[in-house]
Amino acid sequence: MIETILCAVDVNRLDEETHVLERAAALARLDDAQLDLITVLPDYGKSVVGGYFEEGHSAKSIAKAKELLTLFGEAALGAEMNAKVRHLVAMGAVYHEILMAADKDGADLIVLGAHRPDLSDYLLGPNAARVVRHSRTSVYVVR
């Protein structure tokens, strides 16, 4: 039985991610599972590039991403179901943060989208491929 599903979406491509969240929600309804929605932002604060951003940029980015996730969840799932969803924002390498969140929350299933591949990553995008390859839990890839 699945108790927790972690659905990973790209906050910069929410229009293209609706079908991913809808699939994760359908799977959550099957087992009455907790649905967690995560997006990962790049962490510019730890690099040379971070010096070019104003103080508090990371906190503002996280707050804006959480707001976008909440609005996205409400539009895709409706207010009642979205109120039960945990909205998570992480900063760092996408695949690493998804795997860390899945481990931390005890996710039984990770749901993510496979974006249109380039020639260099023919089957899956690089982040989806890494999550599939390194996850200790099942991964459902939505095409």
List keywords for this structure.
alpha/beta; five-stranded parallel β-sheet
Q: Round the Cα radius of gyration to an integer and report it.
A: 15 Å
> Termini distance?
24 Å
Structural class by helix and strand composition: alpha/beta
The level of helicity is: 40-55%
Helix tally?
5
Order of helices and strands: EHEHHEHEHE
Shape from CA axes?
A: globular
Structure characterization notes:
This protein is an alpha/beta fold and 143 residues long. The protein contains five helices and five strands, in the order E-H-E-H-H-E-H-E-H-E. Helix 4 runs parallel beside helix 5. The longest helix has 21 residues.
Topology:
Blueprint: E1 4-8, H1 14-31, E2 34-41, H2 57-77, H3 79-82, E3 86-91, H4 94-105, E4 109-113, H5 126-134, E5 138-142
Parallel strand pairs: 1-2, 1-4, 2-3, 4-5
Helix pairs in contact: 1-2, 4-5
Give the structure's gist in a few sentences.
The protein has 143 residues and is of the alpha/beta class.
